[in-house]
Amino acid sequence: CTGKVFTVEMHHQRVDFANPGDNVGLNIKGLDKNNMPRSGDVMVYKKDTTLGQTKEFDAQIQVLDIPNEIKVGYSPIGFVRCGRAACRVSALKWKMGKETGGKKM
């Protein structure tokens, strides 16, 4: 989504900028109400082309609750900190759990 930041506040004090890790509040205008940003989203300048989408990534995951076995093609919702996105398993390098006796298989 796209919008314009009018003010930045940290602990109820107006600030000119924020650093990585700062907890800030933003007054943003011009946002699409059907696609509002959520906590954990990354904000960049519209003209900044250094960040982009990725089609593929490697991950070591921990499954909290799943009724069936994870297989190639499985499409879970991935959660990283406050962000979440749909993913698809394209390959499994190894599994470890109760059924493997705690060993990588």
TrEMBL record:
Gene3D superfamilies: Translation factors. Coiled coil: none annotated. One of its GO terms (molecular function) is GTP binding. Keywords: GTP-binding, Nucleotide-binding. Residues 56-103 form the GTP-eEF1A C-terminal domain. It comes from the Eukaryota. This is GTP-eEF1A C-terminal domain-containing protein. It comes from Oxyrrhis marina. The lineage of its organism: Eukaryota, Sar, Alveolata, Dinophyceae, Oxyrrhinales.
